Amino acid sequence: MSVISKSVPINTKATTQCSTDMFTRIVKFSPRFLLALLILPVLGGLISVLLPAFGYAPVLEQTTFSLQGFNALWQTPGLTQMVTLSVATGLISTLLAFIITLMILAAFFNSPWLNRIQRLLSPILVIPHAAAAIAVGFLIAPSGMISRLASPWLSSWELAPNGMFPHDSFGISIILGLTLKELPFLLLMALGVLAQPELGKKLRQQHKVALNLGYCPMTAFFKVILPSLYPLLRLPLLAVLAYASASVEMPLILGPNTPPTLAVAIMHWFNDVDLNLRIKASAGALLQLAVTGGLLALWLGAEKAVKVLFSDSLTNGVREYGGFYWQKITVVLTTLVISFILLSLIGLVMWSVAGFWRFPDAMPEQFTLLHFKSALMQMSSPLFNTLAIGLVTTLFAIILTLLCLESEQLSDKPISRFTSLIIYLPLLVPSIAFLFGLVWIQQLVNNQAAFFNVVLTHLLFVLPYVFLSLASSYRRLDPRFAHVAASLGAAPCKVFFKVKLPQLFAPILIAAALGLAISFGQYLPTLLAGGGRIATITTEAVTLANGASRRTSAVYAIMQMALPLIGFILAWVLPKHFFKSARA
Amino acid sequence: MQSSLQIKNCQLYRQNELLLSLNEQVNGGEILTIMGPSGSGKSSLLNWLTGTLPSSFKANGEVWLNGQNIDNTPPHLRHIGVLYQDALLFSHLTVAGNIAFAMPKGNKKQRLEKIEHALEQVGLKDMGNRHPDNLSGGQQARVALLRMLLSEPKAILLDEPFSKLDTQLRVDTRELVFSQIRDHKLPAIMVTHDHSDADAASGKLITLNSVL
């Protein structure tokens, strides 16, 4: 009897010791796994584009290095226009979104309107680029909402005119679409910085000091808040710039065709039936890399120049630069942005249920659910793919992120600067430049597992967002809870599952909703990694946007918006429900 | 004309609950001390004077600065300087930059000379190019004082400005602040928890009761 009772505790002790080690080992290993998972595909993809670009492509029976890809690229008619279009749309839209963000922040810094604007704009964040492009396209089309609202009383158009929008050769439609989409992202990133407890409080107090010293509120923002805020906005800004200069969804739906932006042209070459065009496409991918890299360098250079140019005026004592008028301009601009967004969404919904809709009428004559019914009938397989890919990717991303953040706490030092920069890597390197190389590798390794390939590729884009979303809440956890639990004898793995995770329930759900939204919205990665065999709502929506009826296209765009929205609503409602039942 | 800060029939409410009523005039060089427990409305009174009262509070009454009603003047045009318990120096600027930020615009060279002179006066000679985060608490407090004074305010509010300094530093800094207020003949209102602050101010003392 006594022997048994003695041996039992020893046994349990031995097993917990073992499982602790296992857990700790997995946790300690996870950051390296995360790094590998992000670096290898991006680097591997880049190399697999680099080799064919210089003529080395065993698949095409080309094994000598040459510059034929580049020669073919330089001889492409309209190449200069393509590059110019990419550079101009990327740079102008990022700059516009950034400037309007700053103006909104400066004009409403201490006003309750800032929160209202935030609430109005934050749902835009979950709208995939493709859906946003479709909605904006509807708004500015010759028979779109704007032209309808202005006709015939203002424009005297009785019939839809021959307008230049969308698809205008100057890229104005692309710029409009990108600006409207990136503005809420930048604004929410900035507000996220200001919501950090310590930094935000310090900045608000310093703003107050500047007001007491006689500074007009807008001047105070630019001279006091911006210098501290900008360094924290730099990476999101660069990510926006990199994306805007190399994305395909917006230019595909809103941009011109003759010639398109560089990224869209590269995509067409890669997908051409003539496989030899792939060498030219690879060379093009390198050019895209140079274009985006150049833009990022230009931005960083301009940042330095602005800093030098304006460092004197920070302390020159000038308190007022026509703040009254800037305030008015900002109010008008903000109203314009919000009404543009609202109008395009309203237009989208109306098209999806419109029966007969004569031109200058602002409303359809009949409403019908027919388009929804017929679209939903064909949607089941894309819908299933979208959800399955999203759920698997997000689940994996969340587990990995949690393990990495836990390793940060176990080893008691924050993740290195290198790692936190690498997390941004897939957001900074144009996806068109490495995705094709990655697909080649995936096809070499396993030709059949299209689903697995898509999940792996989505993970590259989902992980950064999930990580960024969870990191702040995880790091804000009061470490004393873990200390108390440890002092009560709980092993690290028990502390993790029983103490930390329950406290993080709500942030984890938000991160999951974000991860799902990012995965749902991926167009190029799905198309390429799936080899065209895996259709999701987003790939279908982009395909339909340039051909099929406006009504079907509207239904797909609405589905694209509804899915992430449902995710966020669940993430918002579930914690309330759970905590309610816990209390009862 | 002698400068003065006048509070006429001020009644401060937090959600319809009366926190304090006040009717005071502070003349140039005088320091009015207001003491009271937390939640008695001391800081809200200062917010009301600077025109930044949060919307959860309501206030009646008028503020007159040097014979002018400033009730409807926006905060940044009131010319009321405030010292907080934190120095709140701008960390993207140097010490000299912080002070230059506060000074009225003008000739660059003259401004720099003025800053150097002012730093020297408070024992911070040649520290203009230092970064404010590398200064000690007492040094930061002195820079904050210079920043506020060189903005040429017409009145000064002190929001527990010495509470984060240790005893000896507190006495020295307090003496410096009070002597500057008297030299510049500025009306000042100080909010504090500490009786020694009130004694040193040697002006009128108002003690607020806690609201139950």
Question: What do these coordinates show?
Answer:
Chain A has 584 residues and is mainly alpha-helical. Chain A has a domain at 89-259 and 322-368: MetI-like fold, CATH 1.10.3720. Chain A is built from 24 helices and no strands. Chain A has helices spanning 2-53, 68-74, 79-107, 113-121, 129-140, 145-149, 172-194, 197-212, 217-246, 249-254, 262-270, 277-314, 323-353, 370-410, 417-423, 425-428, 431-445, 450-476, 479-487, 492-503, 505-521, 524-529, 537-545, 550-583. The longest helix of chain A has 52 residues, at 2-53. Chain B has 212 residues and is an alpha/beta fold. Chain B has 2 domains: 1-79 and 156-161 and 186-212, P-loop containing nucleotide triphosphate hydrolases (Rossmann fold), CATH 3.40.50.300; 86-153, no CATH class. Helices cover 33% and strands 26% of the residues of chain B. Chain B contains 6 helices and 9 strands; from the N terminus they run βββαβββαααβαβαβ. In chain B, the strands form 2 sheets. Chain B has a 5-stranded parallel β-sheet, with helices on both faces. In chain B, strand 7, helix 5 (167-183) and strand 8 form a beta-alpha-beta unit. In chain B, helix 2 runs parallel beside helix 4 and helix 4 runs parallel beside helix 5. Chain B starts with a strand and ends in a 5-residue tail after the last strand. The model of chain B has no long low-confidence stretch (mean pLDDT 90).
